[in-house]
Each structure stands twice: as C-alpha cells, then as structure tokens.
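Technical note accompanying the year-one report. For the benefit of new consortium partners, we illustrate the data format agreed upon in the data management plan: each record pairs a sequence with a structure-token string. No post-processing was applied to the example shown here.
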Amino acid sequence: MHIAISGNIGAGKTSLTELLSKHYGWEAHYEDVIDNPYLDDFYNHMERWSFNLQIYFLKSRFEQLLKIKNINNVIVQDRTIYEDAHIFAPNLKSMGLMNQRDFKNYQELFELMESQIQGPDLLIYLRSNIPNLVNKIHKRGREYENSISIDYLSRLNERYEAWTSTYDKGNIIKIDVDELDFVENKEDLKLIVAKVDDEIKKISAA
C-alpha cells in the first residue's frame, strides 16, 4: 500500500511522515530538500531557477515512485508528484516566474511520467491557514525559506484547495491542522491515526 502526505510549505508533512512511519512500521520516503542543488538559488531568484527546480523535483519524485512500485512494504511518502504538476509549476507560471515554453516542456514531461505511474492508495491532505504556515516555517529555521512571501503561500493554498476538491487518484483524508499539534501532543496524533485506520479498513475491504 502506498500512502502519501500532501500540503503547503510548513503544513507538517515531513513530521507526520516520520510519526506515521514510526507508529505503523511503514517505510518512509522523504522529499529531497537537503541535497537539492537548486533551492537556495530558487528562493533568491525565482524567475531564473523555477524551471530547474521543478524539473529536479519531478525527476526526484519519479525516481521515488519507480522504487515504490517494486517494494512490498507499506510506503508513506512526503509530498506527491501531482503537487509539483498541479500546484507548484502552474503557480510559478501564473506569477510570471516560469515562461510558457518552459511550462509546456514541463507539462509534457510530467504527462509522459504520469503514464508510467499510479496514484497513492491514500492521500492525506494537511490543510492549514497562512499564519500557521508562516509560524512553522520560521520555527524550523531553514535559511532559504526566509524570503517566502505571504502572497506565494496564499496562492499555493488556493491551488491546494482546488486540487484536493477534485482529487480522483485514490482515497483522500483532509485534516485541518491549525488547531492540532501532532508532534508534541499525543492525543492529536491519535486523532489522525484513527482517521488513517478507518480509511485503510475501507481500502482493504474494497
């Protein structure tokens, strides 16, 4: 079974991936941010590096999915390839930070990759408001994220809401995390685990 966690920057995807991996004994696959050679440059000069960054993420997640296809364990994945293609890249284009030629190239490459993969059995969408995202981004203190604007996060949130409202790749759970602290509060984590348990039962029974 393949489970993926989606959500805006700072929503808590990596933390929940790690916690669910430990709780269930699942194999975790994380987003490549530490070794990503484009992130610093992107946040300093988005227009110059947007296409390079998105291609790197696309390649990285496609590699993950090819590996996942051959693994028998339950996998929990931090962010999906669909978010790159339906949220981040279109947002960069709409903001004038990726030109039409590069965006078309990107889309065609994604469509080719998509023909070779399947969506996750379960998508967990972490929904969060902007103040909460900003607070968590500042709290984790990644230097390259200091220049992320409120406008950028707001545009991403709008696209996440639109994308998840029509999501059809598999089952989906939407979790509002503004009032939850599943990292520090075990009861909050239990609430999420209960929702995941219920959804896994539905998938297994189908």
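Partners are asked to follow this layout when depositing records. The chain has one domain: 2-205.
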